[in-house]
Each structure stands twice: as C-alpha cells, then as structure tokens.
C-alpha cells in the first residue's frame, strides 16, 4: 500500500485502498456518458505473437466504458495486417488499426515528407503521433489513455486508474502520468529511471541551479513509464520526439503548455513487468545504451530552450556529479531490495552507471555538434495549418484499409 506523501509540484494520486476494478469501472461508465473515453495501443506486429498482447486484448474486451480503441501497427506486411484485423476483431468496442506500413498511410506520409512535416525516424514516437492524429480526426473520444502492448502483468485496474484522472469531470487534469514499482521475478528493475534519470536530474540541479523545469521533472516517480492519459485538446499543440526521448519529451511539452496543477501522476499497479531491453554495453545503436543517449539529449535540448548553456566544460562537471550521485543510489537501492527480499546485482548496477556516465558525454557531444537538429515531430496544429485536409485524409486511409481487408481477413481466418 502506498503512502499519501505529496512531493514536488505535481499532484500524486495514490493507491490507498486497493479499490476494486468493478467499482472504478462503474464510475468510469457513468463518466463516459458525457465524456467519451478512448485508448491508444502502439504495437509492433511481433507483439501479436508474444505472451503479453493476447492477454491484454482479452482483458480490454471486457472493459465497458471505452468508446474507441486506436491501434498503431508497425512492421507489418499485408498478410500480417490482415492477421491483425482478425486478432483485434475480438474487441467489441469500436476500434481501428493504423497500418503504418500500408500503401495508403505511406502515401500520406510521403505528402507530409514533401512538406517537411513527417516524422523523421521510425519507432514508437512516430506510431504514437499518427495515432494521436487519428484520435483528433475521429472525434469519438474526449479523454484518452495510452499504454504499451508488452505488459506481462496487465489487468483492467491498471487502465481504469490510468484514465480516471482525465475522465472524472470533477477533476481539472489535462494529463495523467502512470507510475508503479518496477519489480518482477524477485528483482528490482527499471535501471534507466533509477540509475540515469533520477541522479542526472539531481546532478543538473546541482550544476546548473534549481529551476522550475527540473523541479517539475524531478517530481515524477517514474518519468519513463509508457502509460499516460490526456484530454483530446492536449494533442493539437504537442510536439514529441520520435526516438527514445518520447516519454521525457511528452512531460516536457506538458510543462511548456500547461500549469502544473493541470498535470498529475497516478499509481496504476502494485506489480508491473514488461519486455526488457539489453544493456548494450558494446554498442550505442540499441538497447538501454541508445535509450540513455536519447533521454539525455532530450533533457539537454529542453534546458537549452530555457537559456541554460550546455558546453564541453560543464558537461564534464555534470558527468562527474552524476557519477557520484548515481553510485550512491546503487547502495540505496541495494538496501531497499534487501529489506524487501529482492535481488540486486551490484556489479551490473555499477556497470550500468559507468555506461550511462559515458553516454551522458556522448549525448552532450552529439547535442553540441548538431545545433540545427530538429528532433521533434511537428505539432498537429502546424501540420493542419500547412495541409488543412490531413486529418480527414488520415481517417479516410484507415477506413479504406479496414473496408478493403476486414472481410477478407475474416474469410482467411475461417479457412
């Protein structure tokens, strides 16, 4: 059971009573009559063949309050898209799949590329951005939750608690960030959040001085969670990164666009586990190594926009300060793990800190050597200004894909 302590500038909504899913869903169903609720699921095709997503869909199918489910499907050919149509057909709620690799959405992407408005990198950020565009285009949901498709410990209570802050008409929140303890199989997980983000934010405050943005970011208990919820009007002006900086970028955009009393974080799970990324000690092109670089660059970019000078001299100071703080946290987390009967490999923890410290320097060098880099996907407000019919074209492409292949998918599935 969580404590009731409020820290930082962002409201924390705790799990104090383990309120039943049935009770929460009954209340959400009443909210949905005047405030329609939706869900975004950004997915790789490979996740349809994994353990987590079939279980997630089976449970979402029993959720009574959703008006719309939008699935972003990446890395799928035609046969895989048709299989996805059949796979998600068990959902009784209105749902649509964005076949991001299909010719219709690729043609729309090419139009946006010609205007310099398309996402420049493949990945979750691009997938989420197009799903957000479809939410704007369809107009079926006023409040929307988004969560990953690889959650091995999923239950309906997670979704109910995640969407509740933006669904309840008595609340004024525009955005809710999910948080939870990263514990699974007797181990303490979440290394990037524990050993990179938290100590790096502390180091930045110590070196650059405390400011409103760093206090805001340091208020989040799990800033890297892939679970958040929002009111639809948030989406128009949101600029998000297309790389691993997505979660940090979304939080930064919320800070730019809204007062902190319109933002909250909510405890959504007692236990959470999902697909784990490799540490990737030998390469910065993938795994936690690339993730740490992208996240660090996202923080540096935001600080630079606020007038803070990031240069080679203070980069070394930031790295050294981070390294000392992070090593102290290793001992803290070891003790936390021990009192809870959990495993924590000190050697692996310190190897992670060493790699993150090295990658802070690499991220800084990359940031300094590419002053003209524009890593953010343009806001939908800008895109619709340049291409007024884009949302209608996006919706039409998705509908035409569905109309052309849904019946064929059902026929193929019965063969």
TrEMBL record:
GO terms for molecular function: transferase activity. The keyword Transferase applies. InterPro entries: Nucleotide-diphossugar_trans. This is Glycosyl transferase. Keywords: Transferase.
